[in-house]
Amino acid sequence: MGFSNPDRTQHTGMFWLGQGEPSSPLHFAFTAPSRAAVDAFYEAGLAAGGQDHIAPSVHADYHPNYYAAFLIDPSGHKIEAVCHKAP
């Protein structure tokens, strides 16, 4: 798997997949536009078969507005949605 964001002025990027040896578990983090979106990510992920890792909550050890949820996907990868905005 790869990721590229050639135009860093945009909030876009490209992912691609290729054949190869399985990797060790990875951590993918996606910025969410709101805390409600983090909550929706978490609920949808659980409904789709993801495993709870950390329920939606504030992680003040990162910064006061770091609101995130973490799931483990079926391959063992940690998937995070995070909102950096104040409530």
UniProtKB/TrEMBL annotation:
Matching Gene3D superfamilies: 2,3-Dihydroxybiphenyl 1,2-Dioxygenase, domain 1
UniProt keyword terms in alphabetical order: Lyase
Annotated VOC domain residues: 1-84
InterPro entries xrefs: Glyas_Bleomycin-R_OHBP_Dase (IPR029068), VOC_core (IPR037523)
Organism of derivation: Rothia dentocariosa
GO-annotated molecular function: lyase activity
PROSITE patterns: VOC (PS51819)
Identification of the protein by name: Predicted lactoylglutathione lyase
The organism's place on the tree of life at top rank: Bacteria
